[in-house]
Design a protein that fits this description.
6-stranded antiparallel barrel; 6-stranded antiparallel sheet; 32% strand; mainly beta
């Protein structure tokens, strides 16, 4: 038989190596309402002659029963005012801020799929990663406050997380505004978020980071 020649894999070879510098940008806001968290920057009623904002978007229950124009205290001791409120059933509020607003557009996910990996950063030092387990069936209608849309999460957050931005881990798109935790009749905990696309549609809103 003819001998089989096996190439010497130990021969010296050179390969080009490319090193790229990766810069991570923190998109979290630097100012948050007391007792809660700011999701992002936003301007509402953008189709009207008098838009409201820019300001920080958060959960409406953070500002309790305050009306438009009422004063809101931030964690750092600064003050803002309520610029706009979601209608009944929509847990969203817009607050003025002394901080310079973000300018980068934030994409919003209209069609949120179950088992999507999501994350939200709430109270200082609290970062959460979980999954979407369900979405309220609103018959595909997001433009009516009579059909509030909720995004159900496998895990909830911590006190002070309300209002934080829930984003899709793979795309960075906004999924919801964190509202709070729950415990079902079987004792299983979880979290609930206001559907972000419903907020932007009903409040005629543009969001940025």
């Amino acid at each position: 038989r003819n001998p089989v020649l096996i190439p010497d894999l130990r021969a010296e070879r050179s390969f080009p190596v490319v090193i790229r510098t990766v810069v991570l940008t923190d998109h979290s806001l630097g100012i948050h309402p007391k007792g809660g968290t700011a999701a992002c920057w936003a301007t509402s009623r953008i189709s009207s002659p008098r838009p409201r904002g820019p300001g920080v978007l958060t959960a409406k229950h953070i500002v309790a029963k305050r009306r438009i124009g009422a004063t809101v205290l931030f964690r750092n001791g600064a003050y803002g005012r309520v610029l706009d409120l979601g209608p009944e059933g929509i847990d969203a509020a817009l607050i003025s801020s002394p901080e310079s607003p973000g300018v980068s557009p934030l994409s919003v996910e209209r069609y949120v799929a179950p088992w999507t990996d999501v994350r939200f950063d709430g109270a200082p030092g609290c970062s959460h990663r979980t999954k979407v387990t369900a979405i309220t069936d609103t018959l595909g209608i997001l433009g009516s406050s009579a059909l509030p849309a909720r995004v159900v999460l496998a895990a909830g957050g911590d006190p002070g997380d309300s209002g934080s931005l829930v984003t899709d881990v793979s795309t960075g798109r906004a999924v919801g505004i964190y509202m709070g935790g729950y415990c079902d009749p079987a004792g299983r905990p979880g979290g609930i978020a206001q559907h972000a696309a419903q907020v932007t549609e009903i409040m005629d809103m543009e969001v940025r980071i």
